[in-house]
Amino acid sequence: MTKKIALTIFISTLLLSYGTVVAETEKTAAAETLSVDEIVNKTNRVAYYLGIDGSARVKMTITDSQDRQRNRELTILRWDQPNPDLSKEEQSEDDGYCGGQKTYAFFHRPADVSKTVFLVWKYLDKDDDRWMYLPALDLVKRISSTDKRTSFVGSNFFYEDVSGRNINDDVHELIEITDDYFVLKNTPKNPKLVEFAYFKIWIHRQSFIVVKTDYYDKNNKKYRTFEALNVETIQGHPTVTKAKMTDLRTGGHTVAEYSNIKYDVGIPESIFTERYLRKPARKYLK
Amino acid sequence: MNFKQAITGFSIRHYKAVAAAVVMTTVTVMLLAAVPSIWPETFSAFNSIKIDTDPENMLPRDEPVRVFHNQMKKELSLYDMVVVGIVNETHRDGVFNPETLANIYELTEFAKTLHWTEEGREVGVVEVDLIAPSTVDNIEQSGPGVVKFEWLMSQPPQTREQALAVRQKAQRIPFLNGTLVSEDGKAICIYIPLTDKHLSYRVYSELQKKTATLSGSEAYHITGLPVAEDTFGVEMFMQMAISAPTAMVVIFLLMLLFFRKLVVVISPMIVAMVSVILTMGALIIAGFPVHIMSSMIPIFIMPIAVLDSIHIISEFFELYQQTKDRRQTMLKVMDELFVPMLYTSLTSAAGFASLALTPIPPVQVFGVFVAMGVMVAWLLTVIFIPAYIMFVKPQTLERFGAVHIPDQAAHTTLMGRLLHRMGVGTYRWAKPILAVTAIVIVAAFYGISKININDNPVKWFNQSHPIRIADKVLNDHFGGTYMAYLALSAVDEEFVSKDFINDFNQQAQKQADGLKEDWPQAATVFTEIQTMTTASLKNVQSRQEAFERLSGLVDEKLDQASDDRADAWDEASLFVDQQYQRNQVFKDPAVLAYQTQLQQALLETQIVGKSNSLADIISTVHRELFEGADDQYRIPDSSNAVAQCMITYQSGHRAGDLWHFVTPDYRKSSIWAQLTSGDNRDMTKVVKAIDKFIAENPPPVPLKYEWFGLNYINIVWQDKMTTGMLQAFTGSFLVVFLMMTILFRSALWGLLSMIPLTITIAAIYGAVGFVGKDYDMPVAVLSSMALGLAVDFAIHFLARSREMYASFGSWEKTVPVIFAEPALAITRNVIVIAVGFLPLLLAPLTPYNTVGTLLASILLVSGVATLLILPSLVRVLEKRLFADKKVLGASCNCVTCSVSSITMVALIAITLHQYTTAGWGKLTWFSVIAIPVLAMSCGLLSRRGKCKILNEKEVIGND
Fold first, then answer.
1. Which listed residue, A175, A215, B24, B428, has the most CB atoms within 10 A of its CB?
2. Structural domain boundaries of chain A?
3. Cα–Cα distance between B139 and B170 in angstroms, integer?
């Protein structure tokens, strides 16, 4: 318990220091008057749509209840559908548009899955398109993705945690505003599609970073928890660089550490195609 | 006044004090045992009743097989499971109709809620590992080139087509077909894992309540080994409360029938009751758990406790009318019976105490406490019965007992007449009787050779019990509901840093050579890495440490490298990880193919109906990656391809399922075997088949194989029990023989007294072999009971014979007297106890039935053996038996002394063998030396001065 509190304070300090640096204190006052939808939109953008694109090297450490660890190392490239109303320059200044998105995840380690690639095309109005490339079988395969709440390559994160849950799938309620956080309760519109009954998120009021998410089951029992463990400002964007997902039922957890984070890289859209699964663009994967 | 007169005299004089002491002790023990059990919080300093229904505890906690079982369960996150079978025989689509599937869905949702907080820990159903249609993943084709992961049945289907689709999908997945759904589509099994198997009865009861509320044409069967074991425990205690008291009542009524005096008959009941209370009380107070074995303690103590009292009352009954004086009669009775009773009790106690030699803790506890109970019963008999008789008013006894006119009175009753005729018969037909006995023995040994050693916790319930029915129905529909696991583990090689460095550098050089032409920069990096390895890994202790250090060093280089060298260092970093993964043997296609072969060998036993393995999972994923084509159901060709199939599998809802089949280091894996039978015999066959297969087909890489799972543990303790029991029995046989030799001061007499019990045991176990009844735990334990009871009759018979022969001078004259009161007492004992335990046949638990049947048979056979064979033998051996009447000590007869010595040596050898790992080799040498030494000392001892005089007298006497 004390650990958790300490962590929260740590993150708060981090976020607060960021806030003063950018001198956006006037926003705090405005936050009081924000609508729930505005909070949700801002949060979604901060979590998944910073810059016009992005790349990062991710190291996942999967620890089970017996403290046995496995690692995954991958590079994730992201490309956002541009806002048709803005010019290219304006787009890199603006984080306000949340359209379709393409994600390319290239595996480095473990050695035997190295060069495996997952490619996702996310749409706002329909199911994603998903591909994977398995080099040892020389096989490109489409994966049906009606259900995005499956494990991301054996970690405690789900595909949906990596690519972002569509904000239109839930009903959002602002249940509490603390000194530092907005607390939202999100209830699925179609409960049959998901394993949770609802989830609560704690959103930092200055930065709109999600610091914690708790998932509850039908019996009102918390069974899954996300925590942001570290936040850094990269190219002016406060970014979660270390996060942890814990499965309270199995006692296992996964820590994802992000390094080499870059925004506005200028990754061409053409990379995010089937053709580049077999022949990855090494330039963007270092 | 000698010792026995002193005791009897004391309890007759101070009968009030004796009675008060008995009552006080009993009440104290009852309170000490009961109060902390009822209010454990308040009296935490004392032990409260602990119940242990776990057959696993037949083995000590630190027994290697248990340690391994628990370790593998932990490493592979496996749990003991409650199995709910849903069978629909009436609907045309079997269970695959919307109504049944909706009920199954509802039941699954209900099962998920069955967890509780106990002592701050979450216990109950392990939700994430629950196997049910709505909780497992389906992997299948979803249009051309598209593979799909989805819940097999995320919601109950609405239409017939949807319901049938669930069946079709599940049967495509080898892991589910024959495990979750039956091949005939009539049944579904849901597997409910528990954090602890002791919760299975609670879960079982909750599930039963729930299924009662589900309306549909399907039937629900709840089973699984943990349920069987836990339910048995609960029913066992109900039986204890019913069977033992019923037996008591029947014994009481029979005694009343024989002796017709309520007040007198009550006394043996008090002795039995108090013995049971004191023993069970002591057990609880001492903190031992009441186990399946110890729950039978009352049933064993009762007949033995009653036995001695019946002899006393029987004798009192016969003699009382001669004097009509309680004190006089009792003194006379006790004078005659004290020694035989002491010896019968000692021998019974020795028989049970010898169970402490078996390496099975609950059997040890059982043996020691029954032995204690027997001695308590003896003490009560000699102290309390005389005192009790003093409480009975002379007027009450006025018409008690047989009016005794020598030579006639004994035959006045039907039983008396029959026994008299029998006695005369044994004198006349001695040789034919012995001939028949010989035939019986030969037949018995043939029967014993056919004995089937087997046990099965499910068969502890009788045929009509819901668990037995569930067991039968589900095993008819499925590949089997009894799980055993075959663990395969890579053999850890000893880490030698020099060898490691050589091997690693060799591999690195190979890479360098290969890259020289196309990528010279990388080639230099691979040379550099070798220098680095040689320099920094010298003092490394383990492979893990070596790789941690290596990848650390390479990462450092990678970070510092200039842009043009970074790629080369990245390649080196990949190479290090590749080398690290080389020992992940369960990614090796050859090893997985070997698993498939093992599974085939399992199926060929015909006992394993279905098995699941890592190889199955990989093959299934591979098939679905290649358009679901059946010929693609195979292990891919490289370990990288295997790893990529695994990562694909882990993109499902149940990523963790992989870790039930392989550990995250890919060094240990297990195959789940589903047996259609829980018989230990069948498990043993499977184990042997795999031993043979592996001996003939060694694995492609060095692998250790070991079984675990409850089914396997059962055969381990059974093996220990069988050999342990045999040794314990041999030990107690020798102890009793030694005691008999000392009692009668003659090896011949000692041998004679062993004959009825030997024949009884041979006959009973021969019959067990003939009938085809499995030699299971209760059957095994009853050998000690047989030993204890059968020798009792022989002691009474022979002791009285010898005494009476002394006064009558010939066996012909002794026979009618022996076949009067002593034979009558034996017969009464046989009837009372045999009939008294017949109510056990009504119990719904087979071990109780077995005990009831066998107890009755043991008494009957040993009674007959004592009354027919012993007199016939005495008749034949009359000269030898009564030749030397006055031997001062066992040591004076050279033969007796030698036989005793050899017995002692054998006894020590057996005991040592039980406790030391010293094989028979060393012990044989020990015996070879010890026996001649002892024989020589026997020879010397028998030539002592005091013996010489006696022998001379004898010679003169014989003249």
1. A215
2. 3-284
3. 10
**CA–CA dist B11, B595 (Å, integer):** 74
* Cα–Cα nearest to B176, from B148, B145, B142, B153: B153
Return residues 657-676 of B near A (CB < 8 Å): 658-659, 663-665
Decide: B756 and B863 in contact? Cβ < 8 Å: no
Question: Across chain A, which distance is largest between two alpha carbons, in Å?
Answer: 57
Query: What secondary structure letter does DSSP report for A67?
Result: -
For B681-698, letters b (16+ CB in 10 Å) and e give bbbbbbbebbeebbeeee
Tell me the CA distances in angstroms from B741 to B736, B750, B792, B900, B901, one per residue in order.
9, 4, 15, 7, 11
Q: Which residues contact B896 (CB under 8 A, 6 or more apart)?
A: B741, B745, B746, B747, B748, B750, B890
Are the beta carbons of B873 and B865 closer than 8 angstroms? Answer: no
DSSP E strand boundaries for A190-236: 198-204, 210-216, 222-234
Task: Give A59-106 pLDDT, tens digit per residue.
Answer: 999 999 999 999 999 999 999 888 878 777 777 666 667 788 999 999
For residue B673, the cross-strand partners are B484, B611
Using CA atoms, how far apart are residues B938 and B904, in angstroms rounded to an integer? 13
B430-448 pLDDT, tens digit per residue, is 899 899 999 999 999 999 8
Q: How many helices (H) and strands (E) does chain A have?
A: 6, 13
- The crossing angle, in degrees rounded to 10, of helices B747-771 and B846-864 is 140
Prior bond to B847 cis, omega within 30? no
Cα–Cα dist A148/A128, whole Å: 9
HEC secondary structure over B772-803: CCCECHHHHHHHHHHHHHHHHHHHHHHHHHHH
The Cα–Cα gap between B824 and A87 comes to 117
- The hierarchical CATH code for the domain A3-284 is 2.50.20.10
- In eight-state DSSP terms, residue B865 is I
pLDDT digit string (tens) for B115-160?
A: 888 887 888 999 889 999 999 988 888 877 888 888 899 899 999 9
Instruction: Tell me how far apart the alpha carbons of residues B344 and B753 are, in angstroms, rounded to a whole number.
Output: 11
Q: Which of A69, A150, A194 to mutate to test the interface with B (most CBs of B within 10 A)?
A: A150
Q: In the structure encoding, which two tokens stand for residue B54, read together?
A: 């776990």
What's the token pair of residue B485? 């696991």
What is the Cα–Cα distance from A41 to A47, expressed in whole angstroms? 10
Whole-structure pTM value:
0.84
d(CA B749, CA A127): 94
The Cα A126–Cα B581 span in angstroms is: 40
User: Cβ A134–B644 below 8 Å, yes or no?
Assistant: yes
Chain-centre distance for alpha carbon B555: 57
Q: Which of A144, A145, A278 to mutate to test the interface with B (most CBs of B within 10 A)?
A: A144
CB < 8 Å from A in window 208-237 of B: none
pLDDT at B801 over 70: yes
Name the 3-class secondary structure at A55.
strand
What string of DSSP letters covers B504-534? HHHHHHHHHHHHTTT-HHHHHHHHHHHHHHH
* Residue A278 contacts B where some CB pair is shorter than 8 Å: no
Q: Which of B647, B651, B664 sits opposite A64 (nearest CB)?
A: B664
Question: B334 pLDDT band (50/70/90 cuts)?
Answer: confident
| Tokens of residue B343, six digits | 């010896």
Are B651 and A153 a contacting pair at CB < 8 A? Answer: yes
The verdict on a CB contact (< 8 Å) between B647 and A109 is no
Query: Strand (E) positions, A81-221?
Result: 101-109, 117-122, 129-134, 139-144, 170-177, 181-188, 198-204, 210-216
